[in-house]
Structure formats: structure tokens, C-alpha cells
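TICKET: design request
STATUS: open
ATTACHED STRUCTURE:
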């Protein structure tokens, strides 16, 4: 299994020894995102709702660079320095995801990088956009029995 590094300028660049995401087969592991503005690499200013939206926007940018979207996320981890913000996370999350929602954990932490109040990471599974059939399907056994001994139209002699 080859690992592919995912990188996009539409999300904050890694601030340590990690990748924005790593793709293995059809699974993508998205690194933790804090509310950094990609262009300035500074924390989003504003209320907690604005910061949560920035984190989801950053995750969405990495998901898109990986060939998917937030709808492909199967597991979401949320880290909060203040667990009283839990209900606000639910409210904002409902605008970014549709049912079935991803499995999720919310963890209270003492501190996050750069003094952020929230961080999220995710696991995404990409579904094939189309299935390529490599060969014709085999006829069913009933059809094989029914057709046994019959000549197909393509093998009949042509009458002039």
C-alpha cells in the first residue's frame, strides 16, 4: 500500500512534522486543524462559532484536495479547551454534514497549539465514483441451461 501525501494551499500549512492528510487506498487521514487562516497562518478572530466554522472550512479544503468532501468523513475527533462549547459544535456541525453523520468523539484538553480553543481531525473513506466493469457478467446457470444447444443469431448462416 502506497501512502500519498495530500497538500493544498487552501488550508493552513503544517506547523510541524506532519502532512495535511495522508491517503492510503481509499482511506484519507486528515491531520488536526485549528482555526488558522490559510493566507496569514494566524488564528481566526471572533466568537467561538466563527472559529468552529474556520476549522470545518479548513478540513473541507483538505478533504477536497484529497478527492472527497466532508460527506465522506466517517470519523471526526473534536478537541475543546472548554467543553461548555460542545452544544455549539453540534449546532455548527449540522450545517456541514448530512445524515448519516460521522462517528465522533469530543475530548476536553488543557491546551492546543497556538492557543487555539478547538481542533478537529478526521478519517475519510472515498467511494469509487464509477465502477469499471472489466468483463461481461457470466450468464446465470438457468440462462446457460436454457440456451444450451441453441444457436445464437450471430452464429446462424445468413440467407441472401
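STATUS: resolved
RESOLUTION: sequence designed for all positions
ATTACHED SEQUENCE:
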Amino acid at each position: 500500500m502506497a501512502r500519498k501525501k495530500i497538500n493544498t494551499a487552501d488550508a493552513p500549512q503544517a506547523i510541524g512534522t506532519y502532512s495535511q492528510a495522508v491517503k492510503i487506498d481509499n482511506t484519507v487521514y486528515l491531520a488536526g486543524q485549528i482555526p488558522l487562516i490559510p493566507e496569514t497562518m494566524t488564528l481566526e478572530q471572533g466568537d467561538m462559532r466563527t472559529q468552529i466554522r474556520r476549522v470545518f472550512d479548513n478540513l473541507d479544503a483538505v478533504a477536497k484536495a484529497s478527492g472527497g468532501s466532508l460527506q465522506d468523513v466517517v470519523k471526526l475527533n473534536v478537541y475543546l479547551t472548554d467543553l461548555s462549547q460542545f452544544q455549539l459544535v453540534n449546532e455548527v456541525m449540522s450545517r456541514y454534514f448530512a445524515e448519516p453523520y460521522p462517528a465522533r468523539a469530543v475530548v476536553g484538553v488543557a491546551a492546543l497549539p497556538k492557543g487555539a480553543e478547538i481542533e478537529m481531525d478526521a478519517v475519510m473513506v472515498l467511494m469509487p465514483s464509477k465502477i469499471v466493469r472489466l468483463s461481461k457478467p457470466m450468464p446465470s446457470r438457468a440462462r446457460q441451461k436454457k440456451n444450451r444447444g441453441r444457436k445464437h443469431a450471430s452464429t446462424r448462416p445468413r440467407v441472401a
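CLOSING REMARK: The beta strands are 3-6, 21-24, 27-33, 36-37, 42-43, 73-80, 103-108, 118-125. The mean pLDDT is 87.
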